Prior knowledge:
Number of helices: 12
Bound molecules: 2-acetamido-2-deoxy-beta-D-glucopyranose
Oligomer: single chain
Structural class: mainly alpha
Distance between the termini: 36 Å
CATH class: Mainly Alpha
Amino acid sequence: xxxxxxxxxxxxxxxxxxxxxxxxxxxxxxxxxxxxxxxxxxxxxxxxxxxxxxxxxxxxxxxxxxxxxxxxxxxxxxxxxxxxxxxxxxxxxxxxxxxxxxxxxxxxxxxxxxxxxxxxxxxxxxxxxxxxxxxxxxxxxxxxxxxxxxxxxxxxxxxxxxxxxxxxxxxxxxxxxxxxxxxxxxxxxxxxxxxxxxxxxxxxxxxxxxxxxxxxxxxxxxxxxxxxxxxxxxxxxxxxxxxxxxxxxxxxxxxxxxxxxxxxxxxxxxxxxxxxxxxxxxxxxxx
Length: 287
Ligand SMILES: *[C@@H]1O[C@H](CO)[C@@H](O)[C@H](O)[C@H]1NC(C)=O
Ligand SMILES: *[C@@H]1O[C@H](CO)[C@@H](O)[C@H](O)[C@H]1NC(C)=O
Ligand SMILES: *[C@@H]1O[C@H](CO)[C@@H](O)[C@H](O)[C@H]1NC(C)=O
Ligand SMILES: *[C@@H]1O[C@H](CO)[C@@H](O)[C@H](O)[C@H]1NC(C)=O
């Protein structure tokens, strides 16, 4: 108990010192997980309920940023949130790009999604205990499925996925990575949804069933029966990073309505795809 309390104090202090520097922000991740949990079939729904920690009260979204909060305790996990490309290349190649700072292969968001998917596939198969903590596997997978859909989580190595590009978001000093993690989403919520995340989620859900209805099957599908296909999600992200996130932005750029309104559709789409694909993956894992 003491140890647990100490951990909480440490985590909370670290959260205050380093507010969300990576990953869609809290809202982006919560949106992805809310959409995903609403699309689970009965068996996946039951498995998720069993695996979630009790304090989550069967709400995956409430723990969707857990992986960001433990980065400072599980140092090994920080390389697993992204996969950047060298020399400003606009395509993703697993063998070239999926490694950590020390060059260790597979240590990137694509490798991590495969890793935690494989761990979860052991759910219910091992009568004694899985060798892995499947609660953590579920929380990591849910978080990384969000991250991989944030275009600048598959950005350029040279600028750390936009983290070193300083810009102004309207009048506020910001870096480009943070603009895509948080600012676009927050500005959309304030301007169009009365600052209610629930209304934003409903608007995306509505487009999933109407606007994007004919595309959703394609989003859910992977080639040759793979349980999940993060290579594809990463390839889409670096393309969107080049086409939308980096486009027209240089150090010191002032990003306002022109940038916000033209990029918001991409953010909406990526949040929707992240949610749909997390659900499809969990349905295949547990189904
Ligand atoms: C796979 O998961 C284990 C358990 O969390 C972790 O130790 C390892 O670093 C992970 N590797 C990758 C590439 O995700
Ligand atoms: C698995 O991980 C969760 C979340 O970190 C933790 O609360 C739980 O105690 C762990 N379970 C085991 C059996 O270690
Ligand atoms: C939903 O689709 C409409 C029509 O394309 C678009 O105007 C609106 O911005 C979309 N909203 C979201 C949240 O995707
Ligand atoms: C995919 O898996 C299903 C069910 O396991 C099987 O019936 C089907 O033949 C597989 N398709 C391919 C292309 O491997």
